[in-house]
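S1.2 Input.
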Amino acid sequence: MNRLYRLVFGFLVLVVSHPLLACAVCGSGENDPTRNAYTSSTAFLSFVPLMAMGGVVYTIYRYVKKADDQQER
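S1.3 Output.
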């Protein structure tokens, strides 16, 4: 019975999975607006937290540098 399940699973993977696409980006054309939207939103959602963390680090750096300059006077 286990061998039958493997055979059926292998058949389904080879035959049925070909027409199915994993996501909207994988099966779209070259200039598909949906693909561009997914790519743009992924890039946006990746860079916004990095920019926010960079802004926090830069602000802390400015305050520390300002405090050091005031202590030297």
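S1.4 Remarks. The mean pLDDT is 82.
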